[in-house]
Amino acid sequence: MRKTKIYGHRGSKGSFPENTLLSFEQAIKQGVDGLEIDVHLTKDGEVVVIHDEFLDRTTNGSGLIKEYDLKEIKKLSAGSKFTELELYEPHWQQETVPTLQEVFQLLAPYNIDLNIELKTYLVNYEEIEEKVLAIVNQFGNSRKVIYSSFHLPSLIKLKQLDASANIAWLLNQPDTHLKEYMDGLNFESLHINKDIVLSDRSHWTHLSSHIRVWTANSREEIQQLLEMSVNSIITDYPERALSLRNER
Ligand code: G3P
Ligand code: CA
């Protein structure tokens, strides 16, 4: 029987500063099958790994990412805002906003999947799809890379640029025509909010091998998704999900 994969959401977000190399290293140490990361573009067109369009919540900077060059963003701390996390240590202050290239360099020795979410629904980043694909082609040939987005035009563009790209539509609400979309647009999978899946489990069973579910964190949610044999679980607590998966 196919084993449900466990993907670390923004690394190991529940315990370490999200979308940092530290958080990715920790998730890898825990044994994840994949990592989920978010990407934006800097003013000088570099692909950086950070969740929000703004710097304010996760760094000691302020303003829109697209208004700063990489060199300026690299001066910021991506760890100092996370003092409320139980494991916080002062050296976290040295974490910076990673580039996509740095993530690939970190992953090089490991055979794990990379899910790159393109955050393209609020800000228009010119040619972000081309830039992401170029980096993946440079580094990512030997691993499974999945591109996800809430923004369908980005996924369609990726598929036009590279017919072999694994694209996954991110969904926050149910849609009755999903199977038709999947087949018509040649999606590799759907990435679905756990509340949609868990509120109507029988509805999703026939698609379970094609869905990755986010962001399932409690033991009960994770158990239910494991019982459904979903393709993958995206979680802030990969250690918890891995231990529940591995004891089955
Ligand atoms: O990729 C799943 C999930 O990360 C989507 O939502 O806001 O956490 O990026 P968000
Ligand atoms: Ca994300």
Automatic annotation (TrEMBL):
It comes from the Bacteria. SUPFAM superfamilies: PLC-like phosphodiesterases. PROSITE patterns: GP_PDE. Residues 4-245 form the GP-PDE domain. Pfam families: GDPD. PANTHER family: GLYCEROPHOSPHODIESTER PHOSPHODIESTERASE, CYTOPLASMIC, GLYCEROPHOSPHORYL DIESTER PHOSPHODIESTERASE. This is Glycerophosphodiester phosphodiesterase.
